[in-house]
Amino acid sequence: MGNVFYLLGKPNKIKIKVNNKFDKINNIIMKHTIIMSLLAVFLGLMSCEKGNKDEYPEIKVGKGSESLKEISINKLTERKIVLSGGNEKFLANVENSKLAQVTIHKDTLKIKGLFEGETFATITSHDRKAHLKINVIPQEISISQDYILLHPRDESKFVSLTGGGDIVNLDVDDPYGILNLKWNGKTNILEINALHEGEATITAVSNGVASKTLKVVVRSEGNLEKLGYYSSYSRTLSHIEPKLVVKRAGVGTWFTNSTVPYGVNDGFNQRSAVRVGEILNPQKGQNVQVEIKSFPYPTSFSIGTGTYPVFVEEVRDTTFVIRGKGFKFVLPKPE
Fold first, then answer.
1. What superkingdom heads the lineage (predicted)?
2. Domains and CATH numbers, the chain
């Protein structure tokens, strides 16, 4: 039904009465349209947000085909790792800043090891996250040389030792006491002095890394051709040539400076002698205990009376060589 107009009073004074039924319907339609428009805008924004989220790839740590999950780094060293993914704007933090330091420069993650231990780095880009385990480990032990040859009483030899953990121990295998060692922890320099002939090993040991060994050989110059006693406390071997050599089965071998096996002391001159106990079936590389006796008194000879550990250095057709602390003997082989 349409609007009805009534003319009241004078023709120039008109009062119009309008039926509002359709206006109410229009208002309802308008409100509905506004609500639907707002809902469409909201859904559109949500759709855009979801679309943007799906557009950002996961963060990839490193250049390999797979993202790194864990790395190991030496203390006081730095490592750089390329990042990709996300929106290519990265942030990083580390769980324990006392163990490692992490920084971001553009698309590069920089990691510096501070102290030994394990921690985690978290890398974020937009709403993407990646976690990287960081193992701070000690450097491999390094010794400037693995073998050195020295002469007794020569100048000191200096060897540098680096790496290892917070604590590095030196395990010295020197059964005959051939070395005098001095360690400078500030410079990581080991000073080695040779006292007499022999062989020794110095092994640097630290938790978490492989040990490193230095072999030290000390030799005196000279030949061991004649029977008798040799001193190895100097650069050149010193030989005391005996006047008499006596070998007795089951007892040993005498070396004497006179014609008397047990030495002579006539009040004016002392002629010393030494007896080396018998070593049956000597084998090269063998360590044995040998009884040595000095005559006429326990300290008359260059080496005093006692039981000594010796090393069988060489076995020949008719003789063999033993080496002890500062001395050598060339002995006749037992029959």
1. Bacteria
2. 60-137 (2.60.40.1080), 143-218 (2.60.40.1080), 228-332 (no CATH)
